[in-house]
Amino acid sequence: MADKPRRLGRGLEALLGATPVSSPALAPPTTADAESPFQQLPIARIRPNPFQPRREFRDDELAQLEASLKASGLIQPITVRSVGDHYELIAGERRLRAATRLGWTDIPAIVKDYDDRALLTLALVENLQRADLNPIEEAEGYARLIAEFQVTQQDVATAVGKDRSTVANSLRLLNLPASVRRMLQDGQLNVGHARALLALPNEREIVDVAREAVAKDLSVREVERLVKQATTPKRPPSRPPAEKNSTARTAEIRRLTDRLRRRLQTDVTLAVDDTDRGELRIAFYSADDLNRLIELITGHNEDL
Predict the structure, then answer these.
(1) Of 114, 106, 108, which is closest to residue 92 (Cα–Cα)?
(2) Within a domain: residue 120?
(3) CA spacing 20 to 30 A to 296: which of 116, 175, 211, 251?
(4) Domain-located, residue 2
(5) Total structural domains in the chain?
(6) Buried b / exposed e across 224-249, counting CB within 10 Å, b at 16+?
(7) Distance CA 224, CA 207 (A)
(8) Catalytic residue (choose from 93, 126, 138, 140)
């Protein structure tokens, strides 16, 4: 593409027939396509584009365009196609709306002969060139092209002048919960926020983090950090190192052994396992020594 930054240099012109579209799947009809001369068409006979991807038109934008039309007239005519006894809009819905608000009864138009596929593609590209679509409207436009006309993501990318990965990433936004898509449409979140949120494992977490991002006006980097924290496996509570436990246990057994040795005045061995079960061994070296130990332990003198 000659116009790298915009990536849409050929899009609308190609689909209007000025330049052939490189993707056959989305190419408009190849029948005679000479531009019709401008016609003054009755506004009452013009219907909206049924494939218009844009759902919202801001009043302030329409008011500015209305003021421009009032002061300078319509510089660029709208484009329509003939359908039965009326016309369907191809491009120029804002101009048509502004003219209607001004009370115009007629409007300059170019009449074209396009099928439904071209109509949807033209509407999508026109809005993309003007950056009129919010991210969800753009994604829905791509999805409709793919679903209704059985084309590939690459076909769509070629027609609108974007990389296939850009189209694929846009389509992923439709996997967001409805409430989060609304935040994206309203401008409360941007595409960077949305892509980070898609890494979360379920809708509940996506909604919770999205609401937190809006409430705290978090940056994309901050949302990415929250997502990373939420998706990092939790480590089980750390247990005291076995070595430290073993050392403490050994010291306690030694203390008890020394205490018994002092009390009984003989060799004593104390062994304790992890369940606190064990064995106590007391050494004696004669019958008298045994009687002495029994008397100490029981409090009675019992000669053997």
Answers:
(1) 108
(2) yes
(3) 251
(4) no
(5) 3
(6) bebbeeeeeeeeeeeeeeeeeeeeee
(7) 14
(8) 93
